[in-house]
Amino acid sequence: MRERRKNRIDLIEEKFENMKKKKWAKGVRITTGVMWNLFLLFLIFGLTMSVFAASVGAGYFASLVAKEPLRTKQEMRNEILTYEETSEIYFAENKYLGKVSSDIERRETKLKNVSPYLIDAVFATEDEYFMTHNGIVPKAIFRGLLQDVTNSDSQTGGSTLTQQLIKNQILTNEVSYERKAKEILLAMRLEHFMNKDEILEAYLNIIPYGRNVHGDNIAGVETAAEGIFGMNAKDLNLAQAAYIAGIPQAPFAYTPFKSGRYGGGVKSDEALKPGIDRMKTVLFRMKETGYITKQEYEQAIAYDITKDLRTDTDRPTSRYPYLTQEIQNRTIEILMKVLAKRDDIELERLEQNHKLEEKYRILAEREMKTGGYRIYSTIDQTLYDKMNDVAKNFEHYGFTYTREEKDSETGETVLVDDPVQVGSILIENKTGRILSFIGGLDDKPSYNYATQAYRQNGSSIKPLLVYAPAIEYGVIGAGSPVVDLKFEIPGWKASNYFEDQEDGILPAREALARSLNLPTARLYEEIRDRRPMEFMQKMNFKKLTEGDFVHRSASLGALEVGASVEENTNAFATFANGGQFVQSYMIEKIEDAHGNVVYEHKSEPVEVFSPETAYIITDMLRDVVKPPGTGQQIPKNLNFSLDLAAKTGTTQGYGDAWLVGYNPNVSLGIWLGYKDQTRKLYSRGSSQMYPTTRTSILFGRLMNTANAVRPDLVGAGSRFNQPAGVVSRSFCGISGLAPSNACSAAGLVRSDLFNSKVMVPTKPDDSIISASYVSVKGVKYLALPSTPSEFIVSGGTGVNQEFIKRMLGPFGGDGSKLFSGRSIFASNVVSGSVFHADDANPAAVQAAGNGSTLTWTESASNDVIGYYVYRDNERVATVRDAVANSYSAGPGSYYVRAVDITGLLSPASNTVTIGSPETPDDPEESDGNEEQPEHQTPPSDGEHGTPGQNNGDTGEPDGNNGSHNGNNNGNSNNGNGNGNNSGNSNGHGNNGKNPPSKEDEDGQ
Fold it and tell me: Which residues pair with 587 in a beta bridge?
């Protein structure tokens, strides 16, 4: 048999067997066997322990992440890519204003807009293997674990960019093995759901970078580049990129700026050193990892980074504290409704459920601060700047008080200024856009006096609540007669500025222009049961109470809570819009971080008054800025002319001063007052400038500024257009009825505007009767049977009792004063009332001589109709009431007796001798009834005053200076009839039905 050929392995085995047979090999064989067996034993033990340790580790790891929910791809992406971004505010026309107040500022950017230097610096410093690992670097993890277990002084960390992203967006900064385990698991999972560019971009947008120049906390590379160097992230050079990339390791140690608590700004040189050293470390790492050359490294190391740091500590919004806060407040209100609607919460439910409203308010505020919104306002920047400059430099506000206040930091009581505050707003009528406003004069505002301050609006309420509704109801036309007479009803008493002022019957137009309280209160009583406050409700006065609907004092501005400057001004714009109320607004639109429009304002006009009523009330308010109107000083302070309607107002005690004016295009409202509502702007008899003088000057300056800056918005040349339904009709001025022959014969026919759709005078006047009358202290009364005929004027115009009753209305009053000396009808009409005289003889007078003129004093009695003059015991003259108490006398001895309406005489006055006296008989021997030739001095020119020119409504300054005239120059004896008698309300309401009266003090 052929022998089998041995292979190589057989030969080796054969040689090995031969070696074992040798003597020396026997000892080696024994030792080797033992070592091999020991090796196998240790290997098995090591493998067993490794498996055990791995099992324990895996079990422990599993226990650490057991409660971590298994997120889907979309859930993880949403959590990673949803991060806070600071919202921004814009003026009108997309002009950037600044960022909203937020705990941390962040602005998102795209990876393509980041400097490559910065990306390389991040890789070199934070994650050298980012582009190759799957979310974690095991050796880095074990190194970190070992350092932690051994409590090593060197803690190099082991987190990749992916892990840091997980920590910041999904987990927390908690230092624990559980958090680290979850971080590792989620990082590996995230790498399957997002690509490297997405992870890197998210990281660059969320990592904190310390503070900006203002001391605000910042996050994201775009915010860091802008906040630290004032540039975009894509424009950073190598040194700047390295500086920023080094900050996240210790953000507040390496940031170059101080905290906002200390005003922001650059740190000291010593405090800057850690950040600069960190920048150099980053550059070194970039060189070592090959991202930059040695030459680039050396150039960057030598770069003076401090010269690039921002030094402008004034943030844009700090220049606009009132505006920034107002826009933020309004944005929260809008987003609150947007979020509620997104959750299918009805607006009505939100308004009624306070807890629900509070919840959504908190969510909206958080969303506004961190949602990255772009908020576009209606405010014209230049107009806002210029108008606020005017307000800050206005020199006529008045006295600045001081008050004690506790310092919040030191706890000490300090004195702080309490100046007059101002609130003002300019609204575009047709759109409701708020073009500009003045929120106050505080540097650090806590309160906006244009939008948040609710004060009683005094006489500025009169056209809104009384006159316009009365026209709309068809109760009056522009010139219809109203009654300015006192009244007293239980629980309430009103008066004009001067408590004794009563002007009788006068046109509604004049009563409104002069802002008289008594006719306003009487007219309101005629319409109060129709709830005219509903008109104000339609104009969105937000804080009306049910009491406001019933209190009579509301007609004079005594609302329980009051109104804001914005509300009041917005309401007057209704008249400019032909009776359509257009809600004022400041937020034009809001976009989210992705450019989607989440809100855009849409105007929804509300019909409040008819176009006819709106035009008629506008025409009446035109008279306010003309003599004798309370706003007659306004045109003097304007440097251009415009079709202007306006209304003034002050509250009782001069706590508040108002002025609202409008033309067809814009409405401007002003309020002056103190933060402390017990402070008063003015006291009678003082040398202070009258409040309405101050508001008139300020109104003029603000309107001049608006016209200079935006003449296109003001539209000075535009005019109010009269609707076809507004007609001019003749009527009997004392009754408002159609003219009768008797009315025409008496010269009482007037003409004015009416709303033809609801009221034109058609019924002929039936109030006039023929009457003989006498005058008692300037007031005409029917003569009595016993009245001496020489004092009676025949063929006068009188009125019947039915007319008197109708005109006095439910409040009643003294009908004898309907045609008082101040009424424009006083020279034409007898009141029709009978004077109820007493049965006593009138009081004697005191006579005096001056050359050839005999004069005497007025009798103290209230029923005197004139005087008899006696010479040498013979009656030589009859002097009627309202004629000067004097007589041109020849030589002789004279005395005077007063005569009352019943014919009774006073005792004789003292005797006065003029010229060469003759011996008189005893005066008592004359019975005073002798028929003697009469000598009656003719009335002097203007003796009764010029009808209709009594400027006596509000104590208004005379228009020539800032002093308050305060004198009634419109009485029957001064001859000029153009008095500055002021008339406003001192009304009281304390019966529980009317609140303590704070209505218009001065009728403005």
Answer: 377
**Cα–Cα nearest to 631, from 560, 695, 585, 676:** 695
Angle at 643 between CA 638 and CA 645, to 5 degrees: 90
Starting at the earlier edge strand, list the strands of the sheet with 874-880: 874-880, 864-871, 892-900, 912-914
Separation of alpha carbons 800 and 831, rounded Å: 8
Nearest to 521 by CA among 754, 833, 806, 809: 809
DSSP state at residue 174: -
Q: In Å, how far from its chain's centre is CA 665?
A: 20
Max CA pair span of the chain: 204
Q: Model-level pTM?
A: 0.74
- Per the DSSP assignment, residues forming a β-bridge with 672 are 422, 657
Cα(90)–Cα(380) distance, rounded to whole angstroms? 10
Tens digits of residue pLDDT in 857-916:
999 999 999 999 999 999 999 999 978 899 999 999 999 999 999 999 999 999 999 986
Axis crossing angle, helix 269-288 with helix 238-246, rounded to the nearest 10: 110
> Considering only CA atoms, which of 741, 790, 739, 732 is closest in space to residue 770?
741
Assess contact for 207 and 165: CB atoms under 8 A: no
What's the CA gap between 913 and 895, in Å, rounded? Answer: 9
Task: Give SS3 for 173.
Answer: coil
Which distant-in-sequence residues (6+ apart) come within 8 Å of 50 by Cβ?
none
What angle is formed at CA 14 by the lines to CA 12 and CA 18, rounded to 5 degrees?
115
Terminal alpha carbon distance of the chain: 144
What's the gap between Cα 385 and its chain centre? 17
Distance CA 671, CA 961 (A): 21
- Give CA–CA dist 506/519, Å, rounded: 9
User: Is it the case that residue 306 has pLDDT exceeding 50?
Assistant: yes
- From the list 142, 133, 143, 139, the residue with the least C-alpha distance to 163 is 133
d(CA 906, CA 927): 12
> 155 Cβ partners below 8 Å, 6+ apart?
144, 147, 148
**For the chain, give me the number of helices (H) and strands (E)?**
29, 33
Interior/surface letters 973-993, b for 16+ CB within 10 angstroms, e for the rest: ebeebbbbbbbbbbbbbeeee
Q: In what order do the strands lie in the sheet with 208-211?
A: 104-106, 217-219, 208-211
611 Cβ contact partners less than 8 Å away, ≥ 6 residues apart: 578, 579, 723, 725
Report the alpha-carbon distance of residue 304 to residue 247 in Å, rounded.
17
* Short-list 305, 314, 316, 204, CA closest to 255: 305
Q: What is the DSSP string of 639-674?
A: SS----EEEEEEBTTS-EEEEEEE-SSEEEEEEEEE
- Strand (E) or helix (H) holding 59: helix 23-64
Q: Is there a contact between 778 and 820 (Cβ–Cβ < 8 Å)?
A: yes
Pairing mode, strands 666-674 and 96-99 = unpaired
Q: Are 730 and 739 in contact (CB under 8 A)?
A: yes
572 contacts 429 by C-beta, under 8 angstroms: no
Please give the structure tokens belonging to residue 554: 């509301």
**How many Å apart are CA 279 and CA 269, to the nearest integer?**
15
| Rounded mean pLDDT, 390-407 | 90
Q: Which two tokens stand for residue 800?
A: 């019947």
C-alpha span between 642 and 407 (Å, rounded): 49
> Average pLDDT in the 5-30 region?
59
Question: What phi and psi, each to the nearest 5 degrees, are found at residue 610?
Answer: -70, 155
Q: Distance between CA atoms of 376 and 995, rounded to whole angstroms?
A: 42
What would the mean pLDDT of 641-657 be, rounded to a whole number? 95
Whole-angstrom distance, CA of residue 748 vs CA of residue 98: 65
> Is the model's pLDDT at 30 over the cut of 70?
no
Beta strand 217-219 with 104-106 is: parallel
Q: Coil, strand or helix: which one is 586?
A: coil
